[in-house]
Amino acid sequence: MTHTPAQNGAAVDGTELETALQEITAELQSRSERGQPADYIPPLARVDPAHFGIAVTLTDNRLFAAGEAEMPFSIQSISKVFTLTLALGMAGDSLWRRVGREPSGDAFNSIVLLEHERGIPRNPFINAGALVVADALLSRARAPRETIGEILRFLRFVADDESVAADPAVARAEKATGHRNAALANYLYSCGNLNNPPDHVLGVYFHHCAVTMSCAQLARAGAFLANGGRNPATGRSVVSPERARRINALMMTCGHYDGSGDFAYRVGLPSKSGVGGGILAVVPGVASVAVWSPGLNGQGNSLLGIEALEMLSHRMGWSVF
Amino acid sequence: MTHTPAQNGAAVDGTELETALQEITAELQSRSERGQPADYIPPLARVDPAHFGIAVTLTDNRLFAAGEAEMPFSIQSISKVFTLTLALGMAGDSLWRRVGREPSGDAFNSIVLLEHERGIPRNPFINAGALVVADALLSRARAPRETIGEILRFLRFVADDESVAADPAVARAEKATGHRNAALANYLYSCGNLNNPPDHVLGVYFHHCAVTMSCAQLARAGAFLANGGRNPATGRSVVSPERARRINALMMTCGHYDGSGDFAYRVGLPSKSGVGGGILAVVPGVASVAVWSPGLNGQGNSLLGIEALEMLSHRMGWSVF
Amino acid sequence: MTHTPAQNGAAVDGTELETALQEITAELQSRSERGQPADYIPPLARVDPAHFGIAVTLTDNRLFAAGEAEMPFSIQSISKVFTLTLALGMAGDSLWRRVGREPSGDAFNSIVLLEHERGIPRNPFINAGALVVADALLSRARAPRETIGEILRFLRFVADDESVAADPAVARAEKATGHRNAALANYLYSCGNLNNPPDHVLGVYFHHCAVTMSCAQLARAGAFLANGGRNPATGRSVVSPERARRINALMMTCGHYDGSGDFAYRVGLPSKSGVGGGILAVVPGVASVAVWSPGLNGQGNSLLGIEALEMLSHRMGWSVF
Amino acid sequence: MTHTPAQNGAAVDGTELETALQEITAELQSRSERGQPADYIPPLARVDPAHFGIAVTLTDNRLFAAGEAEMPFSIQSISKVFTLTLALGMAGDSLWRRVGREPSGDAFNSIVLLEHERGIPRNPFINAGALVVADALLSRARAPRETIGEILRFLRFVADDESVAADPAVARAEKATGHRNAALANYLYSCGNLNNPPDHVLGVYFHHCAVTMSCAQLARAGAFLANGGRNPATGRSVVSPERARRINALMMTCGHYDGSGDFAYRVGLPSKSGVGGGILAVVPGVASVAVWSPGLNGQGNSLLGIEALEMLSHRMGWSVF
């Protein structure tokens, strides 16, 4: 962040931003080294790695985009930002008795820390933590189907778009190959940190990971985090300003699994990645940014997505530090 | 951060800040629950837990203080911010081949990750990482005495104060009880990640941890991190703006060991704590803050120091998120 | 040990053994400190801790017993000795590509080592290893029901007793609470070290753990391990002498989870315990011993069962060392 | 084992044993694949891998040998059997409050378990455990020099040979490269599980590892473990029969670090290896066997030494199982 007077979205020079997005997109679309799409389920594996899209929602509700910003993709773990927001709204800070707020220093699906810490996942963004969040959501709604419905309604509300939906083929494929997540859920249950049957929790989890959104939808959906908890398009409050700041803090320290420190060092923005190649980043007070490029780096984050954010944050002076 | 136009130190209302510091100090000085000072060496154990001081340097070079802001204390691990800065200046990014940038998720003196990761410490702020940084500094200066001199000269430069010094009694006491650190240094050496004898590296490490500074000195010394790498008092550049941002990012993700996530969540500022009860925090673009209260919480961070920063950041709207 | 004639059961003084069993039983039956039965499933939790039985089969086929040696109990993990024997008979040494032969140094249901070692369990007696063994058995028989039938036929063969059966209530209760084992099975599957669906493998596992036998049956069933692989009652060969020795070696180093070293130190005999309070021990060349007392010590092994074996081995001079 | 007369060395056919040793030696001397000698210190690295020697002491005091059975080599970790014996004689079972009796499942110099278990090493044969044993010996004698003298006197006593000595060049080389052991000693000290300065403990440790003995000396020195605690040559008691059995049990479960289970499975005898290429094995009641071949396998145990023991145990029917 440049820390000049221009600390809100309204002060951003639209022409400069438009040019930056166009040039970054042109450069990255021409790259031959794009990483490989996730290959553990067919619906992700067959996505063409040549896709690239980016969208920015400023806090004054201007929207900028480049590339395939309207093409829907599987948001995967980015959904965890929204399920956490929803669960905090229901359970409040009592949620933190069941899941920590510390970076894990381990891969997204590690089970090791779970054993050392008796079933309390390190944070809500690793898979084990997101399963606990899904369980918390289930505990109110009772049935997986209702809970999935509730999550979708929340996503439509924050995106201000009734077309947001989960892809049932992706959810089925996740379930068919999700033995590592089944291991985590059963382990959590055996530690007493799930209140609902592992199968129900997994059902909710696989469905919210299977939600499909475009960069434009995702940037709008995340804009409340950049705008003190309030959706700049609708003016409706989603969370309090303090809770928005705190969710941003969690994205900063835990949003990229064992690559979180490196991302903070290189880009300096709170963000959350998904294995579908999407990343949602927040520039507090200024903008939310969604980027999508399906090819992943070795840690399972979008290779060109990270690079796009690094280029954009550098050009626009967008860093919280 | 409120993300109002007031995004630099000059825009801060001095009266409001002055009042905030006085009221926070008055409230915390009256607390009976203050935690216990570190007890592993006599010079720290005999410090009166009733002490409390706080100092703020704004980026327009105004200085505000309350309580015992001029009383020197042992800065301990806060020194790691400055040795890292110095080592990056010498070795540049090649330093990152020897030490990581990820939160450790473990206690400050854990040796476990070191074995799993073959002698590459997770980050430069855990003890093992700081030993590697000390080794990097030694490799240029050749002798421990010279290296210690170089570190002191750097601290005097950034604090703009020739009186900064290490307390030899503290350094001796650290050495006499520093078997855990000796274990780490020998382990690193056995992995080939120290180039100098463990005893030399430990000598440098114990001395820079034994540096004594007041809150006022520390706030001035850290001001370059809030001011794009340039000391606001002297106008001299210490590091590039980008490097300042990156050091802030490391403080945010790794500055409080296994309490980093929680601190980011509660306070939302890059900061580094020391077992002497001091904390240095950075409000990018606006201010550096040093606080001191010798009593520690269960994770070895200043109990009232964290609380003071939480109160101050809340009152002033100072959060990067 | 030189397997000369004087090392066989025929040389044992029957009167001395009879007296030893009676006196040990009398002493242990009078103990008030008996440990607590396993409480994770009702069928085990409601077993009266006052039970005590012991039986010895000598390699000359004499049988000695005291206490409730004919009362059936749940053999639980003791069954792993027999499933391993059966799987080695089918898969031979290729089984060792999927499971190790080293003590784990961890609790019976730890999942940590599994992650560090990429899905290869340390040995066939910890739960993860036994699941791999169950999978190996399933791979031949195709259906869980057939595999369970095959295991039961094998147990009836070695015990020379057609009445051996699994208790369906115990198997159901194991399944209802077996989330830790479900976690292990799903984890193994995700590592590619199960060839059959986790549910099928768990079905086989829960059923063989639910087998019910008396001390007398169990001592007969294990006698082939003391007799060079040949059942002394029927004269039929079960395994080669070398394989019998090797199974004994595994029981010695891995039979009591993280209490294996201590048991070897105190008793000095290959043995395998079960959470139902039973222990099967082998005196190579001389005898197999089965003891049952439902109360467990802190590591999940029969408190008085271990003591009985310690007393018996001391009185009879039965130690492999 | 029933300690009846037929189980003693007197019943061994000397001609058969002599032939076995000659044929095994001839076969192994001709092998081209011999492994590599330890290369971490020059005195071990320059040993010719072509050496091979073997010696057997029967409990009736007959001695058999083949190859270079009289050539001295560095016994290294085999010395831990003797320091443990000596420390148990001094401290008795109270030693077990400071060191465990469980297999570690980890490499010989791992520091990980130490952290998880708060400074209590898993067993006396991993390096950390042997350092605690050395500390226990030091606590009585006060000075490293005296303690080293005491250990040497004990080795001369059990070997019945006044020429046993430590090689000072090896001890110096161990110290010069022993940073991993220095890490362990400092760590143990920091946990309060060493009573003497780490340097003193390391001095004792490096010296007893530097003891030089031949196969013939070593077989005689270990014979008390095969003979109920009594040296068959001198008739003098070293330890009680029960303690001899228990030391054998520890060698069985912990003698080969993370290869202990595999060795038990393949050879079935209590034994302890050293990185100098020696192995001492015990056939309870019958014999002690010392073998030496400097080339090591991947786990740091003598490649041909293990093979020799496997061949010998198979030919002579020597297995405790």
Automatic annotation (TrEMBL), chains A, B, C, D:
UniProt cross-references to SUPFAM superfamilies, sorted A to Z: beta-lactamase/transpeptidase-like
Source superkingdom: Bacteria
One Gene Ontology molecular-function label: glutaminase activity
Any one GO biological process: L-glutamine catabolic process
Keywords tagged on the record: Acetylation, Hydrolase
InterPro entries named in the record: Beta-lactam/transpept-like, Glutaminase
The keyword Hydrolase is annotated on this UniProt entry: yes
Class of this enzyme: hydrolase
Assigned EC number: 3.5.1.2
Protein family (similarity comment): Belongs to the glutaminase family.
HAMAP family: Glutaminase
Protein's name according to its UniProt entry: Glutaminase
Annotated source species: Pseudogemmobacter humi
Chain's gene name: glsA
